[in-house]
Amino acid sequence: MELKLELPGALPLTAEEFAAVPVVEGARIELEEGSLVVMAVAQMMWHTLTARRIEAWFQAQGIFAAREVGVVVGPRSVPAPDVTAFHKPVTDLRRSQFPAADVRCVVEVVSPESTKRDRTLKPLLYAEAGIPEFWLVEEHPDLPSDAVIQQYELPRTAAGAAYAVARTITLSELEGGQ
Q1: Greatest CA separation for the chain
Q2: What class is the 43-175 domain?
Q3: Domain Putative restriction endonuclease: where (predicted)?
Q4: 47, 88, 108, 118: which sits with the fewest CB atoms below 10 Å from its CB?
């Protein structure tokens, strides 16, 4: 696949300039310290269905959630979590990115091509931006249709921003109301 983009400015881009970058079919583009990070969209059906199930769970709890929208975590950084849950419903549906202050939880569903970024880099960015919850979702080792969710919370009294594990639960347990 050849990727050609008309950028709204010179690199490094700001979050505002990044909002004008066109959508590219079959690619996922994020902004990291002003540089574009281009990835293939999730290749595994498990990844897609798991993100969809988590989004549906949030919505069933009355929490507005969406998949793969940008979250502005800094002036030149806009990751796109697999699922983003908001403090209140989003009314401007034409936006492609939202300030971290609007976000209550971000969810990263780990896939082979994103393991290091999902486990290491993104939690740091989200914590520094003050997002209260971060969920890291991985394949269940024994049940191919399930997932293991590590739910992290940002302690209010933390010196520096770092998540602490609140609980570990399977997706099927979460959906079952436990």
Answers
A1: 49
A2: alpha beta
A3: 16-144
A4: 88
- Pairing of the two strands 35-40 and 27-32: antiparallel
For the stretch 25-50, pLDDT in tens is: 778 888 999 988 888 776 788 999 99
The pLDDT value recorded for residue 155 is 87
CA distance 148 to 48: 15
CB 131 within 8 A of CB 144: no
H, E, C per residue of the chain: CCCCCCCCCCCCCCHHHHCCCCCCCCEEEEEECCEEEEEECCCCHHHHHHHHHHHHHHHHCCCCEEECCEEECECCEECCCCEEEECCCCCCCCCCEEEHHHEEEEEEECCHHHHHHHHHHHHHHHHHCCCCEEEEEEECCCCCCCEEEEEEECCCCCCCCCCEEEEEEEHHHHHCCC
pLDDT score for 101:
97
Which token pair is 67? 């998949």
